[in-house]
Amino acid sequence: MVNLDGRYTVSATTKNSAEALKAAIQCKPDVIILEPELDNEDGLALIPVLLEKTKAKIIIYTGSKNPKILDEAVVRGARGIINKTEPTDTLLKAIEKIHLGELWLNRNATSRILMQIAQANSPVELSTEQKKLKTLTVKEEKVTRAIQMYSENTLKEIADKLHISEHTLRNHLASTYDKLGVRNRLELYVFCGKYQKTDNPDHHPKRRATDD
Q1: Domains identified in the chain, total number
Q2: What backbone phi and psi angles, to 5 degrees, belong to 121?
Q3: Count of beta carbons in the 10 Å neighbourhood of residue 51
Q4: 172 alpha carbon, distance to own chain's centre
Q5: How far apart are CA 56 and CA 194, in angstroms?
Q6: 140: containing domain
């Protein structure tokens, strides 16, 4: 059917992932029609590999009506889904549109996939402990990290490293204890070691094996 349409030429057909990848690299097709139900192989896993090795746009041609499988194909990079129960000329229409850079998805699939993307990009709800940490001022947070970094030092020594007085350090600690619901320096150390994240591993507490 595809060959009978003067606009297209079938450059190769294959039966497994290895053959498909080899043919795709050699033939450099504009569009790849992929049947994901391969024998003993996950056809969906082939999608990102084909996209990496070629510039082809991928159409999934399948008899499956499982929405999870179809949505996964699109998430992995397929540009369209054609079910084998649809009229055969639908495939030709899809090839045309996808070759022009469009997607070929029904409304239900589009809605589901957009919802998945929105959920994946939505902010993760903070735990109670993380919410408490968010209440700390910049100076208080700096103090908590110093307490973790210099756990073996005295408060006077930690205050010197922070270039503040010991009295100021104790005031910051008292406020921090109240905000985090801890009673002393040890509990603060354990609390922050568990729940305080950092982008710089050099400024992360060196947890001891005996710490819970």
Answers
A1: 2
A2: -95, -5
A3: 18
A4: 37
A5: 47
A6: 128-203
For 101-120, how does the pLDDT look when each residue is reduced to its tens digit (9 = 90+)? 888 887 677 767 766 666 55
* pLDDT at site 114: 67
Q: Which residues pair with 58 in a beta bridge?
A: 32
CATH of the domain at 43: 3.40.50.2300
User: Which pLDDT tens digit goes with each residue over 166-196?
Assistant: 999 999 999 999 999 999 988 898 888 888 8
Distance CA 47, CA 38 (A): 13
Report the pLDDT value the prediction gives residue 178, as an integer from 0 to 100.
94
Crossing angle of the two packed helices 166-180 and 185-195, in degrees rounded to 10: 60
Which has more confidence, 90 or 107? 90
The DSSP H or E segment spanning 52 is helix 43-53
Task: Spell out the residues 6+ positions from residue 169 whose beta carbon is closer than 8 angstroms to its own.
Answer: 143, 155, 158, 159, 162
Cβ atoms of 150 and 161 within 8 Å: the answer is yes
Residue 62 lies in a domain: yes
Residues 59 and 150 in one domain: no
CB atoms within 10 A of CB 104: 21
CA distances from 136 to 70, 113, 163 (A): 46, 38, 19
Q: Residue written as tokens 């097709």?
A: 29
Full-model pTM: 0.53
